[in-house]
Amino acid sequence: MTQSAVPKQRSFPKIEFTDSEAGALEFPSSKSRAYNYYQPAKLRATMYEDVTVDVQPDPDRHLSQGWIYGFGDGPGGYPKEWTAAKSSNWHAFLDPNEEWNQTIYRNNSAIVRQVDLCLQNAKRARAYDGWNPAWLKFVERNLGAWMHAENGLALHVFTSIQRSGPTNMINTAVAVNAAHKMRFAQDLALFNLDLSEADVPFDGSAHIGVWKDAPEWQPTREVVERLTAVGDWCELLFATNIVFEQLVGSLFRTELVMQIAARNGDYITPTIVGTGEYDYDRDLNYTRNLFRLLTRDAEFGETNKALFGDWLATWVPRCLDAAQALQPIWSQPADKPVTFASSLDAAKQKFRSLLEDLGLDSPKELDQ
Amino acid sequence: MSRQSLTKAHAKITELSWEPTFATPATRFGTDYTFERAPKKDPLKQIMRSYFPMEEEKDNRVYGAMDGAIRGNMFRQVQQRWLEWQKLFLSIIPFPEISAARAMPMAIDAVPNPEIHNGLAVQMIDEVRHSTIQMNLKKLYMNNYIDPAGFDMTEKAFANNYAGTIGRQFGEGFITGDAITAANIYLTVVAETAFTNTLFVAMPDEAAANGDYLLPTVVHSVQSDESRHISNGYSILLMALADERNRPLLERDLRYAWWNNHCVVDAAIGTFIEYGTKDRRKDRESYAEMWRRWIYDDYYRSYLLPLEKYGLTIPHDLVEEAWNRITNKGYVHEVARFFATGWPVNYWRIDAMTDTDFEWFEHKYPGWYSKYGKWWENYNRLAYPGRNKPIAFEEVGYQYPHRCWTCMVPALIREDMVTEKVDDQWRTYCSETCYWTDAVAFRSEYEGRPTPNMGRLTGFREWETLHHNKDLADIVADLGYVRDDGKTLIGQPHLDLDDPKKMWTLDDVRGNTFMSPNVLLNQMSDAEREAHVAAYKANGTKAAG
Ligand SMILES: [Fe+2]
Ligand SMILES: [Fe+2]
Ligand SMILES: [Zn+2]
Question: Which residue in B236, B275, B392, B431 has the fewest CB atoms around it within 10 Å?
């Protein structure tokens, strides 16, 4: 076809008034304006429930033809056998944080802005200039090592789990947990970048060697790597959010970094690490709800408790080893307002009360 | 962030990964692909610090538009013909979206390249966004559109309906079987790279032409995340291509994924666009024309063909045959007629076609009237209860079709139907390729090499089997497709809501026994079956009615 100079005639679809609004007519179901295929937890369904429940179907609920693809070695979909834990109704779990599209981006964007502002202010105020060399070293090595753990958990623990849970509510809560971890790990890395660009003695590449070789961090790295090797999604969630996060994560973040940073003239680190603390708080919330549901299950509660006892027996010693190995870092800062013993005690105490809340016995290893 | 600091930031977050030495991540989802010789490819990276605010901003625009649509009484000008089909579409699509999220760890496990893991994890969050933002849109329709029936039972209907099951492949296919087949070739290289263009670009145009500008707002926002996903998939594809041993698997998976996507997506989206619209301007693009642009030119010629320089054999024959099915074999028209035949077991209403529609179809698809016109006239004639049964049970020259065991769209291009005994059962397929998918591709051995990780076709694949020899009224009641008066059907073969006498009830459809074509086929003797299949295939070329 040759090019034509004649302008193409513009053409538009016709808009028509159809009166297709709600209420325009009365007829059977004309007022049926709620999703009616599930029972909301309270009288009225929440936005979270409406956009989450039953989006991942279940042959035990409405899925009449079953899963239409299988794996080479077993059924497809989301088999309940992918964990040894049992529930008489997995669908009873709802995320207390009610995470969906809007909350994910609102909450994380708010945190992004907070961290961003804090780092900008730090630069403008030349805040790093005032840090003593011991503290710079502490942040360079230890916060540097820790960000690897956060990133590893994001990609190989939480992202991984969300393929496997039997309901959409479980998997979405865990996916949001992964997003938190990924954001937090990156924030620590970009903080590290800022420090390496500031006019202070800070080696931005030291974190790699510390994470890979420093003896105090090897048992932590070992637990993180062992976590990623767990096949049972529920064990993975339990071992990570209940055991590792309490005995190692909170020990490092809450009982050490948050306690000592300010005393060493650093108001930046607590702001950033505080966001990780806030995330864990939310993530522990959903995790606690899920495991409470499992330990209180009328049919399977007792067998679940026994199972979780086994998981504790496996993971508590590993995490305590990791915690013990970290002891030397308590004496690295110039100002040492807390001792390792008191920090570990505090972490153990909180861990015990979490277990109590779940109806689980404290493992004997904890007292050693 | 400046470009320079962005580059530095990217390099920095790359430092977060490490080679494990104590234990390696569990391989929960295996693959028969190998990546040992793969060069490391670097896809688009995403820094969470810019990602979250960017997406929040996109969200704000979407939610702002939603408020505006309600304040502006959008539903006064929405075409019911169009919005009814959204009851089907929006019941299906949140599941593929969330499945894409769930598929990401499969790709992460399979591909030993930390550079790519970050992008895949971000995609996971995007897909949670897509699934929940679409569920919310559907809720808005339920609350503001004249007829909420069908929206109100959406996820249940999706899970027990024949059309929901067809759509479910576009989702289960992402999360099951060989990790690369599922999470890379089927999901990204084919579904996202090719077919999201018809889903999220072509279809919303049609929505806007029918008075609905919210669907475009939401799905364009969804589509804007897609280029990152396509980049993830392309990186993995190039890594796979670097190893000679992956070549036969890639070729197998491209054939399966291409053909299955065509069967499923073109059936659904083709029907929505051609039969769900009131816009019959002669110069508006038909689905076939859109397909030519988005799939043939943009995908096949610009994306697939260049892969040949890596020595990969592209399924040219299947691309051409898909085009042939759409333009010459009436694929979309057959599917639309099939959906309309099954109206009592739908959870949406299907409008009749008028002379204006006929004219448009004849203009875009010459010969349309002689094949389908009479049937749609009968559909119109049989629209109201009282004097006649539902059209599926009236003599209108249309035989209820056999279902394809693989893609689960029926074998509607009747002369192409393949009938074979597979796994000790007589099965029908819509095409040679669907037969090959079941009999050859989804097996534990392929071309003499073990493929233990390849998926399997499972489940009660013929929907009709579940309802064999039951009364239609009982089937509808069991499915729950009944309105809140306890008797009026959700599905109706017309759009008239003003007169209760025009609405079909359970009593109106009672007395019709529904038979499964596959159950009957397996009860036949060899001679009966051969005669039956020959007649079925011969019927295909004749004009109906
Ligand atoms: Fe998506
Ligand atoms: Fe996507
Ligand atoms: Zn087929």
Answer: B392
Query: What is residue B113's predicted lDDT score, i.e. its pLDDT?
Result: 87
CA distances B41 to B44, B231, B243, B410, Å, are 10, 10, 14, 41
Residue of B86, B101, B56 lying closest to B214 (CA atoms): B86
Q: How confident is the model at residue A5 (pLDDT cuts 50, 70, 90)?
A: low
Which amino acid belongs to residue B451? Answer: T
Lowest-confidence segment of A26-35, A86-95, B37-46, B473-482 by average pLDDT: B37-46
Alpha-carbon span B461 to B458, nearest angstrom: 7
Interval B386-405 mean pLDDT: 96
Contact B9/A190 with Cβ under 8 angstroms?
Answer: yes
Comparing CA positions, the residue from B39, B216, B20, B6 lying closest to residue B111 is B39
Candidates A71, A156, A176; nearest CB to B25: A156
Instruction: Quote the minimal CA–CA distance from A144 to chain B in Å.
Output: 9
CB contact under 8 A, B79 and A20: yes
Instruction: Determine the distance separating the centroid of ligand 3 and the alpha carbon of A303, expressed in angstroms.
Output: 46
Chain B nearest-CA residue for A177:
B125
Residue in B26, B153, B281 nearest the CB of A37: B153
Ligand 3 center–CA B463 separation, angstroms = 14
Q: Output the six-digit token pair for A336.
A: 């040492």
Q: Count the alpha carbons within 13 Å of B247 in the hemisphere toward its beta carbon.
A: 10
Rounded to whole angstroms, what are the CA distances from A343 to A247, A259, A322? 10, 9, 14
Dihedral of the CA atoms A140, A141, A144, A145 (nearest 10)? 180
Q: What is the DSSP string of A115-137?
A: HHHHHHHHHHTTGGGGS-HHHHH
pLDDT at A22 exceeding the cut of 70 = yes
- Give how far A8 is from chain B: nearest CA, Å: 11
Cβ B166 vs Cβ B407: under 8 Å: yes
**Interface ipTM > 0.90:** yes
For ligand 2, the distance from its centroid to the CA atom of residue B73, given in whole angstroms, is 31
> Model-level pTM?
0.97
Helix (H), strand (E) at residue B491: none
Which one, of B65, B337, B95, B350, lies nearest residue B208 by Cα? B65
B40 C-beta neighbours (distance < 10 Å), count: 11
Quick one: pLDDT at residue B430?
Answer: 98
* pLDDT value of position B545: 36
Ligand 3 centroid – CA B264 distance (Å):
8
Q: Write out the residues surrounding ion ligand 2, Cβ under 5 A.
A: B 192, 229
Residues in chain A, overall count: 368
Q: Can you name the residues that pair with B421 across neighbouring β-strands?
A: B426
Q: How far apart are CA A268 and CA A262, in angstroms?
A: 9
CA dihedral A37, A42, A43, A48 (to 10 degrees): -60
Cβ–Cβ contact B70 with A under 8 A: no
Sign, CA dihedral B82-B88-B89-B94, equals positive
The CA-atom distances, in angstroms, between B102 and each of A56, A170, A183, B127 are 10, 12, 19, 9
Nearest CB to A109 within list B53, B461, B466: B53
Under DSSP, the state recorded for B22 is S
**Chain A residues with CB inside 8 Å of B278's CB?**
16
> Helix, strand or coil for residue A71?
strand
* Integer Cα distance of B416 and B293 in angstroms: 26
Ligand 1 mean position, distance from CA B282 (Å): 32
Nearest to A231 by CA among B487, B24, B268, B429: B24
Chain A residues within an 8 Å CB radius of B105: 159-160, 162-163
| Spatial contact of A272 and A122, defined as CB atoms under 8 Å apart | no
User: Does position A4 have pLDDT exceeding 70, yes or no?
Assistant: no
Given this model, what pLDDT does residue B1 score? 66
